[in-house]
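Subgroup meeting minutes
Present: P.N., E.W., G.H.
Scribe: E.W.

1. P.N. recapped why we're keeping a running log of single-chain structure predictions: easier to compare across weeks, and new members can see raw inputs and outputs side by side.
2. G.H. added today's entry (372 aa).
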Amino acid sequence: MRRNVSRMSDRNGAPGSFWRNLATGRPVPDRDEAAFKEWAHRFARHTGVGLADRLLAPIAPSGGALFPADVVARDRLLLRLRDARYAEVVDRLADAGVRTVALAGYASDALLYGAGGWRLIGDLDLLVAPRQLETAVARLQRHGFRFRKAKSGPFGSLYRGSLPPFVSRDRVVNLDLHVAADMALPEPALPVCQVFDRATPDSRGSGLLPAPEHHLLILAAKAIRDRFEGEAVRKFVDIVLQVEAHKAVLDWDEVATRAKAGQLDRPLRVLLALHASLVGENDHVPADLRRPPRTVPSPAFRRLVASWRDLTVPWSADCGVARKLASEWAYAANFRVAMRRDLERLWNVMPFARQDARPVGRRGPGGVKREP
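Output recorded in log:
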């Protein structure tokens, strides 16, 4: 028998969940003020204080300040300076004739937060057409960018679809040049040409922004690759706001079809079921997408919902190998993907296996990263 998400949460989201207030903008009742302030500080650990203040202050009980003004101001200054450097990189590539599409957090900053450097971003992710990759690399190398050896390991960050980290001389910009929208969305799941065809101009400069369905899929793929651990919280916040902003126009058939082509269909359903459990069910999302798959153990899903409701989601560094493997098999991957990753991990720990990324050299910039 198919499980009903409403058994795990009511239609308005999990009891005591502040995620629904975040999505709808409804103020938190005064009676929940103490609990909300604790939740807000856990939220800020994942998103940064500046963005947390912008998103949560309007819904705070009694309109009280959540964070010290000087801390918010310092966070905003640093993010604005970083954002200016990112726009400079995009403009330099445009001057060389290289078209770029912003991906993930950098796209979210413009699409969901009105630009201006609100979104905390780990790396600057830019999609370039494969035929323009060498031009992009050469241009930035003339401005002092150098490739940095990426760390690998059983759960390392090396993956197919982008180059090793490309870092500015002053180390302010850590750039990932992508030749695929995401490692889980290669051809034909999300062809690069289609991302460019549907992209729209970015008001921050000379770049482009992905279509709503493409942006949602890329965020989902990254959150899933984080196994719903602490690193996924920023992406999930973006997803909550993306679904709320475009709920009436998102093409869910396209989202589901592309996710299946990228073998993301099982964890995507977990992600959307988590969204329904925390935010409340969205009738615009097809019912079969907002229910957890039958293959997901109910206790594991309930624990997942509880940890996200309270924002006690563990960071990756705090999760042992056994827990990471259990998460992938329980809900964070299709079974074939989990099996392939485990086989590759076993291979990579062998003493004769190469542990480094393929260098950018004789192969040209096409020597790309890979993830087990």
